[in-house]
Amino acid sequence: MITVVGIFENAELAEEASSYLLANGLISENVDVHTHGTQPSGHDHIGNFFSQLVDDENKAEHYATLARNGSIVTVHAQSPREAQEAADTLNNYGAIDLNASDDSPSHSQMIERIVADDQRLRGSNPIR
Question: Tens of pLDDT along 59-81?
Answer without folding.
Answer: 889 888 888 888 999 999 999 99
